[in-house]
Structure formats: structure tokens, C-alpha cells
């Protein structure tokens, strides 16, 4: 189960590039690929009211 | 079975790579060889490419079996009843690109199985399931309701039984079981193979053993297709790859730095630029889980450590993740020499 989602930004280009998630107590990085099942789970989590943390790259 | 005796199915290559399933002999175990409480939840992956479907979590412990195996086989999967009176099974989703030649045709599922006792585990079933939702976006938990003993579980929307699952009457000796079906559900995109116990009065410690699982085109089952171990590993790595662990060491359970990926910093506290290429290109850009051992403790997920002090350099946040590898700029927070980590790439369905 996803409990936390954070936006990551590329240190060089400053573009939004991936998510950091905590899922089942494991911390992972999820690419912005619609074919990735964790990316799909994040979109579902957001649609169900989950809030993504966005520090604008100042993580 | 000698190649000369392999029956021609008339649809696809009858000799090489006729098994649409991967790791049907359970020889590949990149995640580990034993999955108990916490790692044996419903819908959790276990031995490569195979995941649990069960009525609740911790219904079964899963292990790679190396003793109770058929003659001339080395491995099987062992499903050990942990929580009684629950239905349980295992499943594999076949990627759409590997369903070509199967969808719209007759296919045959075969496998070897046995139980430790038939007193309770007396109703083992198997199914060839069609997925007609979005291709490769399969809801892996295909069970809507497990139902009463002997009643086939109700599947979720877009999942359809292509055969009529029935009791296989599995015994306490290994035997081969064969089921054929036409994959004729409209708009099928993926195929899922599901083998389960349809019993609701189980006894803790009872085992179901399965191996040599094969799904092939045609209406006859040929002999199980043994692949070289490096080929099997490579096929699994399209979906899951661990980088930095030796064979026999597993993510989240390893201490020390042997085999770890090292990234040197520029200067005494500069940035470390590093890139990793997967051994096998992934099905999609994968989810990355970093692991590192702080001063030789058991690994923690999501961090990178300083390879000089062994202290944490903070959260891992790779920036450029692709199906072929990733690029990563690690920022030092002190006078570090470099970063150390291991990483899992997960592109499972």
C-alpha cells in the first residue's frame, strides 16, 4: 500500500523526472512511464485523494 | 521427450521457446528463496514471475523447493499452508508481446504437481484466464470473490476463465496435469495462468508442490521445455533485476559492500555522476529500489551511503530512469569520497 509520494527533480535540468514512494514500507523511485505498474498505482492513489509532496526539487 | 517426438501444434514454433510462461520450473529466485510473513501477502511476487493469489495475507509460505521434486528435476515451488481454511494459489501474467500466436487459438497448460496429503488438499484446480482490459495494464489480483469450497473464484471485470476449472485430483505423487482451452474471449490482450487450492478447510503445514508449468499453442502438451539457466535468468530479468548482489544474496537482507555499485565523487565533497546499464532491457522503465548497509548493518531501502565512512548520504533519488538503465547525480553532504548502493529494477506486470 502506498503511504507517501514525493516528486523528484533532475538536479541538472530541474525538470520533474520521477517519484519517490513509500509502498509497503519500502522506499523506491518510480519513473514517469505509464507502462510502469507503480506509476499506474500512483495515478490511482492520486485519483482517490492522495496528495503528492512537491518541494520543487528542494528535497 | 526427444525433439523429434514433439507434436507439431500447427500454430507456432514447435521446437524452440514454445513455453509462453517464464520460469515454469522455478529455477530463478532473484528475490529470495523463501517468502514468509511480510513477504507472502496476497498479490506479492515470489519466485521470479510468479505471484501469490490468496484469500488474505499470510495464507501460505512460499519456498523454492529443491528436495521434493520430480525425477530429473531440480526445483519446484512449495506452497505451505500458513493460515488455515483459506484458498490460495499462484499466477503468472504473460506480456502481450508474448501472447502472439496464443490469443485466438487453442492453447494447452501443463504442469507437474503433488500434495503432502490429500486429507484436506483434495481439490487443486488450474485456469487459463484471458485479460481483455488495457494491454499490459493488468489488475494482477484477478479475484473478486474466492467463493465457497469447490466453487470457482469469481474473477474481476475483464478477466475470463477460458477453460472450465475442475478438480484435478492431485495425489501425493508427482504427476502431469494437462488442460486445453480456446483463448476466444473478445479483445483479449494478455493471458494469465492460475493454479490454486479450492479448499476452505486446510491444515497448517500441508504442502502443494508445483513445477514444470508450461503454456503452449495447440491442443497437446509436449515435454517441459528446459532452457539453459542463463537464458531463463535473462528472460526473468526483463521484468526484475537485482544489481549488486551475489547469487544467493537477496535485496534487503545483505550486509557489507561486496558487489555494490560504487560512484566516485569529484573533489572532496562534489557530485558523483554515475550511470548503470541493465543486463537485460526492461519491459518498461522500471521502479528502482536502492539498498545500502550503514556501517555493515543489514540493508536499508531508499538510501545511498558514503563508502569511506559507511554513513548515510540520505535518500536515493535517481533522476534519469529508462528501460535500458539510469543516470544518477549523487550530491554529497559532507567531505565524502563516494556513494555505495545496490539497486533493484522492477518492471513486472
What would you note in describing this structure?
The complex is a heterodimer of chains A (about 60) and B (about 350). By secondary structure, chain A is α+β, with helices and mostly antiparallel strands. Chain A has a 3-stranded antiparallel beta sheet with strand order 1-2-3, with helices on one face. Chain A is built from 1 helix and 3 strands. Chain B is mainly β and about 350 residues long. In chain B, the strands form 5 sheets. In chain B, strands 14, 15, 17, 18, 19, 20 and 23 form a 7-stranded antiparallel beta sheet that branches. A 6-stranded antiparallel beta sheet of chain B has the order 1-3-4-13-6-11, with no helix packed on it. The longest helix of chain B is centred in the last third of the chain and has 9 residues. About 0% of the residues of chain B have low confidence. Chains A and B meet through strand 2, strand 3 and helix 1 of A and strand 17 and strand 21 of B.
Mean pLDDT of chain A: 92
**Major beta sheet, strand line-up of chain A:** 1-2-3
Largest β-sheet summary of chain B: 7 strands, antiparallel
Strand content of chain A: 35-45%
Q: What is the approximate shape of chain B?
A: globular
Any chance you could write out the topology, listing elements then pairs?
The complex is a heterodimer of chains A (59) and B (349).
Chain A (H helix, E strand, L loop, with lengths): L1 E8 L6 E8 L2 E6 L5 H11 L12
Antiparallel strand pairs in A: 1-2, 2-3
Chain B lengths: L33 E2 L15 E4 L5 E6 L10 E6 L6 E7 L11 E10 L8 E8 L11 E3 L8 E2 L3 E3 L13 E8 L7 E8 L9 E11 L11 H9 L2 E4 L17 E4 L6 E7 L9 E6 L7 E2 L1 E4 L5 E4 L4 E2 L3 E7 L6 E9 L3
Antiparallel strand pairs in B: 1-3, 2-5, 3-4, 4-13, 5-12, 6-11, 6-13, 7-10, 7-12, 8-9, 14-23, 15-23, 16-22, 17-18, 17-23, 19-20, 19-23, 21-22
